[in-house]
Design brief:
The chain is an alpha/beta fold. The protein has 33 helices and 16 strands. It binds adenosine-5'-triphosphate and magnesium ion (MG). InterPro entries: DExx_box_DNA_helicase_dom_sf, DNA_helicase_UvrD-like_C, DNA_helicase_UvrD/REP, P-loop_NTPase, UvrD-like_ATP-bd.
């Protein structure tokens, strides 16, 4: 046997060595859970399990890629399927989707397409779509799907008991919405899971053969699985119950999306012979960081206490920093990072900045830009949300799936070619009456539609264009994209924009072509268009990180899950932001506990240094509002410093590097001791720091904050 076990603790090694039968690894952050998963995969292959019999599932594409690389490194030349739940389900549906009425070339809708389909469904069921926002209905439908509740089941439940008014609308719109999607040969993200659940339930033979095909299933970040995901892994672990789940209940942060901590308890019930492994050592962080994280999480009542210990050497104290406003916070952060890199003490890639809501990143981006600090925002979603990127992707979608109505509508007059709204509606009605998809409709138009001459002519040209593109769709995807850009005159059409905006859009188009080029190179034997589109749809926040580039990483707390960085700044730790206003308003203590876990996840990403910052004033939707510190900060027994009255934020005279080296002598140490003193005093004398200003609370309760959460929530919903 092999060095696979050499640098593991005895309990880690036992988990890696475990062969057949269910296993549950429950352990705190940084204890090597993810390491166990990769080592175990390698060890299984070493024991002659065929790589195709192993299915590893992680929460993000980035984690999946890293894991595949690590396995390849451990056992060169052996590729194992590591994927996210959504990716795995998409793969199953391409093969077996026929059982739920899908053709193999189905499209995956984005949030905007979804909204359009929801609006249509609401309207067709006789409700006024202006009264029922698609996002609320979509949110509820998503919830039902994650709980494996189909339209039929929900309608039945709704008939049996009195529900909310929203639910009575949803009971009708849900089924219609599903039909609209099926007619367009399309699915939304949650369908990927639900359809697979349905298929596994209704086709016992298929279930058994998949169960036998995927003999070994490993699920990392198990605490965040929802009901649908649970049903899938358990359906595939009946005949071959070699399911290995690793997780940490204290890091469960997707309750708002239907994740169920109970899945861990159920595991023990469903697999009574489960081997349970607990790990106690943290290999990631300094004792200071762990102590602070423990101070925090101890305040959660809904948990089993577990100790966090490490034999890592002691490091710098964890610090809470208070600033006057978001600009000072951002500027001083940028200056500090710049100086520490300039002095040779750190690299840019050592730093990560986390925030609760996306909108907090803008001021930081600006400050880092001004200070010439290179940074990367984990903006995978943002990139694929951009108009020009979505336009070009819509062309690809139509070429791949001529039934894709939302994509068809997006491109029929983009760039503008004189096919107005009226003409489009006429075409729509004409096509529906003849039971044609829009692709076939534009190829068959005649005078009976009653279109204006110009529109009719343009549509015919458009049909020719589609034919030409379809003919060229079998070569490299990058080439196809270039043809689309050229033949539609896409860039010329933007040339009326301001130069900077034009350059921006053009750069995005180029970036998309470059990503297709990369895809082509990675799939020399011919990647399909549907595979490429799938990659684009399933792209995630954390996907764009490139550590080699030496950039500061900016991301939301949710995307930080599973990652680690030497030096972490957690900004905006304020009442109303973290815990988020939404969790406060509902008055549900469990929601506050989830917010606390979210902060816990953020803090435990740090290996060597951790700074938590908050500001007295915060600009929200263009208004400067006064803020108070998060209640979570009072729970930490760490050093505090108030910069809100300082003019000098260069940090020149007390850089952490100097503290460590002791170059500026006792005065700094004395100062630090003073902060600690002050911290203890503050936390004992004024425990109600967070509750004193009702007005601030009210200011933050404006609807905008909710919208902000929604915007962020929708982003995070993307698998
Ligand atoms: P999280 O809950 O945050 O996802 P985790 O339990 O998955 O954490 P890992 O990411 O696997 O933890 O490990 C944390 C860090 O500790 C990694 O850098 C890993 O390489 C290192 N590590 C894990 N086990 C050991 C070990 N036995 N010896 C040395 N380093 C280790
Ligand atoms: Mg992990």
């Amino acid at each position: 046997m092999t060095q696979l076990l050499d640098d593991l603790t005895p309990s880690q090694a036992a988990a890696v060595e475990h062969f057949e039968g269910p296993m549950l690894v429950l352990a705190g952050p940084g204890s090597g859970k993810t390491r166990i998963v990769t080592r175990r995969i390698a060890r299984l292959i070493e024991r002659r399990v065929h790589p195709a019999e192993i299915l590893a599932i992680t929460f993000t594409n980035k984690a999946a890629r890293e894991m595949a690389e690590r396995v390849e490194h451990l056992i060169p030349g052996r590729r194992v399927a590591v994927s996210t739940f959504h990716k795995f389900c998409a793969r199953i549906l391409r093969q077996y989707g026929g059982a739920v009425g899908l053709k193999p070339n189905f499209s995956i809708l984005d949030v905007k397409d979804q909204d359009a389909a929801l609006k249509e469904a609401v309207k067709e069921e006789g409700f006024d779509p202006t009264h029922y926002s698609p996002s609320r209905i979509g949110w509820r439908i998503g919830q039902l799907k994650n709980e494996c509740i189909t339209p039929a089941l929900f309608a039945q439940q709704a008939g049996e008991r009195v529900g909310t008014h929203l639910d009575s609308v949803v009971a009708k719109a849900y089924g219609r919405y599903q039909q609209i999607l099926l007619d367009a040969n399309a699915v939304d993200f949650d369908d990927l899971l639900l359809h697979v659940v349905t298929i596994l339930k209704e086709n016992p033979n298929l279930r058994q053969s998949l169960d036998e095909r995927y003999r070994f299933i490993l699920v990392d970040e198990y605490q965040d699985t929802n009901q649908a995901q649970y049903q899938i892994v358990s359906a595939l672990s009946q005949n071959e119950p070699n399911l290995c789940a690793t997780g940490d209940p204290d890091q469960s942060i997707y309750g708002w999306r239907g994740a169920q901590i109970e899945n861990i308890l159920r595991f023990e019930r469903d697999f009574p012979r489960v081997k349970i492994v607990r790990l106690e050592d943290n290999f990631r962080s300094t004792p200071e960081i762990l102590a602070a994280a423990d101070d925090l999480i101890r305040h959660n009542t809904q948990r089993k206490a577990k100790s966090l210990r490490t034999s890592n050497p002691s490091g710098l104290p964890v610090e809470i920093r208070q600033y006057a406003d978001g600009f000072q916070e951002a500027d001083s952060l940028a200056a500090e990072i710049r100086e520490r890199v300039a002095s040779g003490e750190r690299q840019y890639s050592d730093f990560a900045i986390f925030y609760r809501v996306n909108s907090l990143s803008r001021s930081i981006e600006t400050a880092l830009g001004r200070a010439r600090v290179p940074f990367a925002i984990t903006g995978g979603v943002a990139f694929y949300e951009r108009t020009e990127v979505k336009d070009l992707i819509a062309y690809l979608r139509v070429i791949e799936n001529p039934d894709d109505r939302p994509a068809f509508r997006r491109i029929v007059n983009t760039p503008v070619r004189g096919i107005g709204k009226n003409s489009q509606e006429k075409l729509d009605r004409w096509a529906s009456a003849r039971n044609l998809n829009l692709w076939d409709a534009v190829h068959q138009i005649d005078a009976s539609i009653g279109l204006p001459k110009k529109a009719e002519y343009s549509l015919k040209l458009f049909a020719n264009l589609l034919d030409e593109l379809a003919r060229r769709s079998h070569g490299p995807i990058a080439d196809l994209l270039e043809v689309i850009v050229e033949r539609t005159g896409y860039l010329q059409n933007l040339s009326g924009l301001e130069p900077e905006e034009y350059a921006n859009r053009k750069a995005n188009v180029e970036e998309l072509v470059a990503s297709a080029r990369q895809f082509d190179q990675d799939h020399v034997e011919g990647g399909s268009l549907s595979e490429f589109l799938e990659t684009c749809s399933l792209v995630q926040d954390a996907d764009t990180i490139d550590e080699s580039a030496g950039q500061v990483q900016l991301m939301t707390l949710h995307s930080a899950k599973g990652l680690e960085f030497p030096c972490v700044y957690l900004v905006g730790v304020e009442h109303g932001l973290l815990p988020h206003e939404r969790s406060l308003r509902d008055g549900d203590p469990l929601q506050i506990e989830e917010e606390r876990r979210l902060l816990f996840v953020g803090m435990t990403r740090a290996r060597e240094e951790l700074y938590l910052t908050w500001t007295r004033l915060r600009s929200t939707h263009g208004r400067l509002l006064s803020t108070i510190a998060s209640q979570f900060l009072t729970e930490l027994n760490v050093a505090r410093h108030d910069y809100s009255t300082d003019d000098d934020t260069s940090f020149g005279d007390w850089s952490p590097q100097e503290m460590r080296r002791g170059t500026s002598g006792d005065s700094i140490l004395a100062q630090m001791a003073g902060w600690g003193e002050q911290a203890r005093k503050e936390s004992s004398n004024s425990p109600d720091e967070t509750t004193s200003t009702e007005d601030d609370h009210v200011d933050l309760a404006e609807p905008g904050v909710d919208a902000q959460l929604f915007a962020y929530a929708e982003e995070d919903t993307q698998p």
